[in-house]
Write a structure and sequence with these properties.
- It is a single chain.
- The protein is mostly helical.
- The chain has 11 helices and no strands.
- Helix 4 runs parallel beside helix 5 and helix 7 crosses helix 9.
- The termini are far apart.
C-alpha cells in the first residue's frame, strides 16, 4: 500500500528523500539524452564542400581510345573463359542425347569461327556415322560451315573473291587431311563423298587440287604435300569416278615417278 503523503510541518523520512532524488536524477538524464539525440538529428554530417571547378571532358580521341581498351580487355577475358570450356563442349559430342550433340555441334562451329584456342572441329567428323538422321544432317551442315565457307575470305571483285575463296577452302581441307587421325580421315572421306554427291565441291576446287598434285599451285605450297591433294580428289571420286578419270594420266605419271635422264 502507498504511504500517506507527509503533512505540512512533518519531517520527511530519509528513504523517501532518497527515492525522490533518484527520480529527479533519472528525469534529468533522460532529458539530457533526448537533447543530444535531437541535436544529432539536426546537425548534418560533415561533408566535403563541393568543388566549384567544373570537370574537364576528355578529348574525343582519348575517350575513344579508353573505350576501345576497355572493350578489348573484356573481349580477351571472354575469349579465355570460352576457351577454357571447349573441352567440356567437345565431350558433349559423344553424348547419348541428341539435343546435347546438336548444341555441341553449333558451339564447335562458333568456336572455330571466332578462332578460340582449343577449337577442334575435326572431332565432330566421326558423327557422320550416326544412326540418327538429324545428327548426320547436322554434321554435314557443320562441316560445310567450317571447311566450305571459310570466314577468312573478305569481299572484293567477284573474280578475285571467288579465287580467294577457292584457295582458302583448299588450304583448310589440305590442313585437315594432313593433321587428321585414321578415324577422322575415314569420316572425312564419307563427308567429302556426300559433298560431291550434292555437287557442293566446285570444279574450280578440283582444278586447284590437281595443280597442287602436279606441284603447280604455289599458293598452296605451304598447305600440304601433293599426296594430301590427291587424297581429297580420291575421296571425291568415291561419289563421282570422273574426278579421277579425267586426270588419269596425271595419276599414272605420279605412280611411275620421275624418269631417269637418258
Amino acid at each position: 500500500p502507498a504511504e500517506p503523503a507527509a503533512k505540512e510541518g512533518e519531517e520527511v523520512p530519509d528513504e523517501a528523500k532518497a527515492t525522490g532524488e533518484a527520480a529527479e536524477g533519472e528525469a534529468a538524464t533522460t532529458e539530457e539524452a533526448t537533447g543530444e539525440e535531437a541535436a544529432t538529428k539536426e546537425t548534418p554530417p560533415d561533408t566535403e564542400p563541393a568543388s566549384d571547378e567544373p570537370s574537364v571532358p576528355l578529348p574525343p580521341e582519348v575517350a575513344e581510345r579508353q573505350m576501345a581498351l576497355m572493350l578489348l580487355d573484356q573481349a580477351l577475358g571472354l575469349h579465355e573463359q570460352l576457351s577454357s570450356r571447349l573441352g567440356d563442349v567437345t565431350n558433349c559430342l559423344g553424348s547419348q542425347t541428341n539435343s546435347d550433340v546438336l548444341e555441341a555441334l553449333r558451339a564447335v562451329v562458333a568456336a572455330h569461327a571466332f578462332e578460340l584456342d582449343g577449337a577442334a572441329p575435326a572431332e565432330m567428323l566421326t558423327l557422320i556415322w550416326s544412326r540418327e538422321p538429324t545428327v548426320k544432317a547436322a554434321v554435314l551442315d557443320a562441316a560445310q560451315e567450317v571447311w566450305l565457307r571459310p570466314t577468312s575470305v573478305h569481299g572484293g571483285s567477284s573474280a578475285k573473291a571467288a579465287a580467294a575463296h577457292t584457295v582458302s577452302v583448299a588450304l583448310g581441307l589440305l590442313e585437315l587431311v594432313s593433321s587428321a587421325n585414321a578415324a577422322q580421315l575415314a569420316s572425312l572421306e564419307e563427308v567429302v563423298k556426300e559433298w560431291q554427291a550434292q555437287q557442293l565441291l566446285p570444279s574450280s576446287l578440283h582444278a586447284l587440287l590437281w595443280e597442287a598434285v602436279k606441284g603447280e599451285a604455289p599458293e598452296l605450297a605451304a598447305g600440304a604435300p601433293p599426296s594430301a591433294a590427291l587424297a581429297l580428289l580420291n575421296m571425291a571420286s568415291v561419289a563421282d569416278a570422273s574426278v579421277l578419270r579425267c586426270k588419269l594420266h596425271v595419276v599414272l605419271s605420279l605412280l611411275r615417278g620421275p624418269r631417269a635422264p637418258h
